Amino acid sequence: MPRRKPFALTGSAELDAMVERAAPAILELLADGVPRSKHAIVAALAGRHDAGDVAVALARLAVTGRVVDTGGRYALPLPPDAA
């Protein structure tokens, strides 16, 4: 069984940098308006970003409201005038 790489982040600066690397790719993927599961997002970005980095960045985007979790699928939030 392959071993997982050790968690190498040591502080918030490293975490912020990792999120800033993966977040634009996630937002670009979701820009087409199609809600996607975390698994689908991780799979779509597998060649460009580490799966763990994408998962953490996705969680950060959800907590900050830059993406919304709608029943296990993530999407960009609707503009205020569309609600």
Protein architecture, described:
With 83 residues, the chain is mostly helical. It is built from 3 helices and 3 strands; from the N terminus they run H-E-H-H-E-E. It has helices at residues 12-30, 38-44, 51-63, and strands at 36-37, 68-69, 73-75. Strands 1-3-2 form a 3-stranded antiparallel sheet. A hairpin with a 3-residue loop joins strand 2 and strand 3. The mean pLDDT is 88.
Which descriptors would you attach to this protein?
single chain, 83 residues, mainly alpha, 3 helices
Q: What Rg is obtained from the alpha carbons, in whole angstroms?
A: 14 Å
The average pLDDT value, as a whole number, equals 88
The major pleated sheet works out as:
3 strands, antiparallel
The DSSP helix count reads: 3
| Share in β-strands | 5-15%
Gap from first CA to last CA: 48 Å
**Number of DSSP E strands:** 3
Low-confidence stretches: none
User: What spatial form do the alpha-carbon principal axes imply?
Assistant: globular
Structural class given helices, strands, pairing?
A: mainly alpha
Order of helices and strands: HEHHEE
Q: Helices, strands, pairings?
A:
Blueprint (H helix, E strand, L loop, with lengths): L11 H19 L5 E2 H7 L6 H13 L4 E2 L3 E3 L8
Helix pairs in contact: 1-3, 2-3
Quick rundown:
The protein has helices at 12-30, 38-44, 51-63; strands at residues 36-37, 68-69, 73-75.
